[in-house]
Structures are given as C-alpha cells and as structure tokens.
Amino acid sequence: MNAFQAAEHTLGKGRVFITRGRTCYQPETGTVNLAGEICLSRRIENILAALHECAHAHQHAQHPVIFAFRNLWPVRWWLEEDAWRCAHILACQLGLGAMVKSVKICAHASYTKPQVFVS
C-alpha cells in the first residue's frame, strides 16, 4: 500500500489529489493534496504523513469550531499532536502496525517539516 492508497482508503475516493505543491489538507474543499514524491511512496513515514493530513480532515468534520481557530498557537499545537496520534491509529487499522512501531515523529515548533526517525 502506498501513501495515496492509504489516504484514499481513509477519506474515500475523490478526496485525495496528487499535486506538485506541498502535502496538506485543504479545509476549503475538504480534500487532501499529496506531493508527488509522497503519494506513490510505500515508506511508512510518507504513509504517516498522508494519514496525518487525513486526520486533519476528520478533525475539521468533528470539531469545525476548534478547527476555525487553527492559526492560534495552542490550538495548532493540539491539532498537530492529535493528528499524529490519529495517523498512527489509522496506520494500525490499515494493518501497518508493525511498521508504525519503529517510527517516531518529532515535529518542529512550526510544524512545517516533521523529522522522522526510523529505528
């Protein structure tokens, strides 16, 4: 399973797109854009990055008021931490649990580029 397949399985067909830009959740459209180098990758860290963006879609659907304040630092921190936890859970539900155990993701304070450590 690659990152695109994992994201599409999580969100459903028609909500995940390949882009030349960055990997991100688009709250205006409720879709996830996956950068080309991530979307076809089978590496667990790229699958987790795609699932992290899917988790933002779930957060937006379940907590639209909280998500509206996502640019405030405490809210952003909570949303990012929660999205990484959800990404790990989603990966386990997709049968990738053994691979997930070897991955630790440490996001920078800006949350723009996570560092991934595979043991």
Helix-strand makeup class: alpha+beta
Q: How big a fraction of the residues is strand?
A: 15-25%
End-to-end distance, in Å? 21 Å
Largest sheet: 3 strands, mixed
Within the largest sheet, what's the order of strands?
A: 1-3-2
- Name the helix and strand elements from N-terminus to C-terminus, one letter apiece: HEEEHHHHHEE
Question: Total number of helical segments?
Answer: 6
CA gyration radius, whole angstroms: 13 Å
Unreliable segments of 5+ consecutive residues: 106-115
| Integer average pLDDT | 84
Considering DSSP H and I runs of 4 or more, what fraction of the residues is helical? 40-55%
Give the total of domains: 1
Beta-strand segment tally: 5
Q: Based on CA inertia axes, which overall geometry fits?
A: globular
Q: What order do the helices and strands come in, and which of them pair?
A:
Blueprint: H1 3-11, E1 16-19, E2 24-26, E3 31-35, H2 36-39, H3 44-62, H4 64-68, H5 73-93, H6 97-100, E4 103-106, E5 115-118
Parallel strand pairs: 1-3
Antiparallel strand pairs: 2-3, 4-5
Helix pairs in contact: 1-3, 3-5
Could you characterize what this model shows?
The structure is a single chain. This protein has 119 residues and is an alpha+beta fold. The chain has one domain (3-118). Helix content is 52%, strand content 17%. It has helices at residues 3-11, 36-39, 44-62, 64-68, 73-93, 97-100, and strands at residues 16-19, 24-26, 31-35, 103-106, 115-118. A 3-stranded mixed β-sheet has the order 1-3-2. It has a two-stranded antiparallel ribbon with strand order 4-5. Helix 1 runs parallel beside helix 3 (44-62). The protein is globular, with a radius of gyration of 13 Å. The relative contact order is 0.16.
